[in-house]
Amino acid sequence: MEKEDLKVLNKGEEEEMELQGYRLCRWRLALVGLGVLCTGGFLLLLLYWMPEWCVKSTCTRTTARDAEVVLLRSTVGGQYSCIASLIKYSKSVKEYFKTTLCLTFVHLLFCSPQIRYFTFHSTKYYWNDEVQNFEVLTRLFFGVNEIAVKVPSVFKLLIKEVLNPFYIFQLFSVILWSADEYYYYAVAIVFMSVISIATSLYTIKKQYVMLHDMVAAHSIVRVSVCRANNDIEEILSTDLVPGDVIVIPSNGTIMPCDAVLVSGTCIVNESMLTGESVPVTKTNLPNPGPGERGEEAYSAYNTEEHKRHTLFCGTDVIQTRFYTGELVKAVVVRTGFSTAKGQLVRSILYPKPTDFKLYRDAYLFLLCLVAVAGIGFVYSIVLSIMNKVPAKTIIIESLDIITITVPPALPAAMTAGIVYAQRRLKRIGIFCISPQRINICGQINLVCFDKTGTLTEDGLDLWGVQRVENGSFHLSEENAYKENLVKSQFVACMATCHSLTKIEGQLSGDPLDLKMFEATGWILEEATEEETSLHNRIMPTVVRPPKQLLPPEPAVSPEQDMSAYEIGIVRQFPFSSALQRMSVVARLLGEKRMDAYMKGAPEVVASLCKKETVPENFAEVLEGYTKQGFRVIALAHRRLESKLTWHKVQNINRDHIEANMEFLGLIIMQNKLKPETPGVLQDLHRANIRTVMVTGDNMLTAISVARDCGMIPPQDTVIIADAIPPHDGQAAKITWRYADKPTKTSRLEPKTQELYHFAMNGKSFAVIAEHFPDMLQKLVLHGTVFARMAPDQKTQLIEALQGVDYFVGMCGDGANDCGALKRAHGGISLSELEASVASPFTSRTPNISCVPSLIREGRAALITSFCVFKFMALYSIIQYISVTLLYSILSNLGDFQFLFIDIAIILLIVFTMSLNPAWKELVSRRPPSGLISGPLLFSVLTQILICLGFQTITFLWVRQQPWYTVWMPLTDVCNLTSHINVSDHNDTEIDDHNIQNFENTSLFYVSCFQYLIVAIVFSKGKPFRQPSYKNWPFVVSAVSLYIFLLFIMFHPIESIDEFLEGVIDLRGYKCLSRLCCPRKMMPKARYMHLAQELSVDPDWPPKPTTTTEAKPRPENGSTYQIMINS
């Protein structure tokens, strides 16, 4: 029954959830209400913290169709977070329709007078009878076009914050302490809590306001919408729905929705989404005529496939170009949170929970402390009953021991190290929007780098050109700025095949296009708005050579008149990362026929050219350049048929243009390494942190850059995995080959990790991921270069690396790396633009030197968290031991003693011991990831035993002294004062709790010194943090407290006439720790297990003479068989 009723929402997507339906049950509600009354409201709080318990205790299970309440289990990394959402019923379907309905859904008017839906993470899910499940039916129910980031009121935030279990526990503690007349300490805790809550409220409110302001810039604007009979109506953007045709103003606008261009061209700045500040040209959606056929002619619109025609919400339209009498129009396709910007905002509003072993272990450790408190609770009750203590005192003192064991200042103390690390990162230009990730960065052991703009300079320099004529290469030339090349198709392709535009008189566009065009020396002119209005069609962008390049002799015919030699760009097919090419249709002034020019990845361009025009040694020449690390672009040309008119070209599919081209040659661009790159990568390698290159560039170029920067040492072998998808009934195959011919020395005999590296392109990665899933884990273990990777493949690679238990960092320039930056444990963007909102970290320094800094600070923050947690745990246990010993003589620590310990010692030490800066260099050893480990547990347990031993000895030793006097209700033994001396006071009021006795004083001083000693022992310095003696606030605090305690103990003032000598020598502790803690442990991470297995596998790595063929097995996915080629 349960399995049948279990529904899956968003199957296969990032937000996949399981849904269970429930119906409210009256008798269960009554029982819960009674329980809430009996527990004084505590049961209500428990159900608030545990929504799953709340639903199951008040509802009965039912089908999803009949549900009144749904329970969602959002699966994130195998963990579940439960959210209960009420099903809402709309009053009438007609509310959702202001315009005509889609016929597909008209039947809903009659079948469902009421619509059932629920809202989760700003998305509405509607019940669909056809599929018997809830769906996001955006086609029908659009709602208001608004990305509503509601800033909660301070009152709502306050209630939510105060209902946190920690603050409830503090409230319980304060009430208990007040009942026990511990007013001073109760006030101090209230004061601390108020400051903590106020700070938290301020931070949360500020984040909401910042996000609201970022979104509000385009939330409500006036837009022009085309209605029937071409009427233009101005409406608010909030009233837009998919299907509306909007007019893009010529002076630009910020898009309030996602829309696809159907006429005209736009120049858009998409930096808000992609991080790329270079303006992008958006062209209108192709509109094939009735005679056109092909896959794309009748294919449905897809955002990914047609993103070069899509204007995304939040992006800035800088300028438009349009037909006279026909405005630049776009059809709204997505609104509100469904838009690209809406998805980004949702990912910020509802981030994935960070699952880190430290936090899981911290909860386990707290549970252990609670168990210890439970023992003390029982001990206190039993002891009090045996001594016939009044019931009120038994309740207060037994509950008090729980508040002593679980430290109230723990969350604030744990946060201190992260806050200090965040400030230090900010000082070196690294900004963080997810502070909890700083600790996780301390565990990073693999970093993925984008190439262009990250490892190498953003700008490309033209190294040279190599033209092709009659199917053979010319010698390479330095540039194309020559008189004899002005009329060549090669230069015409360089001058026209780009997406450059003029913004305020300055050429702007892709850096590669800019360098290529500048190398020709040509001039680009765009038609003004006035010129465009004189023509009945869009005015083309015109390029022409400078006059000094024109030959002086007059031309023979008007067609050859060089004084008027210019080329108009008629149509652009923008660059597509999926297709790896771009093309244009252009016409020479005076010519009737048009020309098509194409540039792109050499392998792609060559495959679209006539075979006879591609030189036979094309592969060798290309390989020669890419091995040297050059970026190579191929050019091609085709003379179009005379029947292709201007209007036909505007609607033709690019596949018809990009075929049967003539190969023109190669442009060789040089992409220099950034000067900081080799040094940083060397530092990471020394620290045993793997480095991986993920790029959209050519594979051989990427391998060359990887060798140049030291990512692949020169003596190591690179094995390229070429995967072929299944075709013609044959299974998928992987062929293995060397990137460069190694010598015949047996390089692969010694099985050391650094001797070989795998390289593959995006297509091979996709085939391996689909057909060789078990092979993929082995490949990523030594995969160093991943080339021609699409943005979603970068994200998949991050997930694959995380799947073998790597802690993955990702460093990119933000252009195509947003998904990978968000998915990685520590994503750092080198872009300062708004896209950095998607990345946990953003660096103001535009090079990878920020990566080691982030890891160092992460390690320092992580070690600080361990130190603070251990210190706070020991503080609780030390105080617990003191109080337990004093309970045995019906005594306790005094109010001012608690206050002195918690404020003057604990808080001061915690907030200063967290100030140690990060160590100056990365070391090869990583800090532990969790608290539940041998060395850490040994450290804590031995300290507990030492503290217990010294306190017990002190407690027993003081009672053996000849001057010891047993405390009596009317005797202040420490002051040797009888009731006669204090006859003016009420003696029982002076020391009603048996505070002023020898045991109390002795344990108080010993425990104070123990707190300081434990702080010094646990305040770990190098190799992850600077030594404690360089942390002057901590040194000053510790020394001052030592001096103060020694002074008040030795100086005979008031109540002290005896002193305790409790010097604890812990020098032998570290030696004992080294002897007892095991050095070698079995590897826990999957990549370590894999490395061990592969080290004894005789067939790994695959030899270049082998082919790996997929052998599908339905029961367990797939396997493979290695075959030796004959």
What oligomeric state best describes the polypeptide chains here?
single chain
Q: Strand sequence of the main sheet, in spatial order?
A: 20-40-39-38-21-33-37-36-34-35-41-42
Number of strand segments? 42
Can you tell me the CATH architecture of the largest domain? Up-down Bundle
Distance between the termini: 57 Å
Describe this structure in words.
The chain has 1126 residues and is α+β, with helices and mostly antiparallel strands. It is built from 35 helices and 42 strands. The protein has a twelve-stranded mixed sheet, sandwiched between helices. Strands 23-22-32-31-30-29-28-27-26 form a nine-stranded antiparallel sheet, sandwiched between helices. Strands 11-10-12-19-14-17 form a six-stranded antiparallel sheet, with no helix packed on it. A hairpin with a 2-residue loop joins strand 22 and strand 23 (472-473). The two termini are 57 Å apart.
In short:
With 1126 residues, the protein is of the alpha+beta class. The radius of gyration is 36 Å and the shape is elongated.
Which features characterize this protein?
42 strands; 9-stranded antiparallel β-sheet; 12-stranded mixed β-sheet; 1126 residues; 6 domains; alpha+beta; single chain; Calcium-transporting ATPase, cytoplasmic transduction domain A; transmembrane
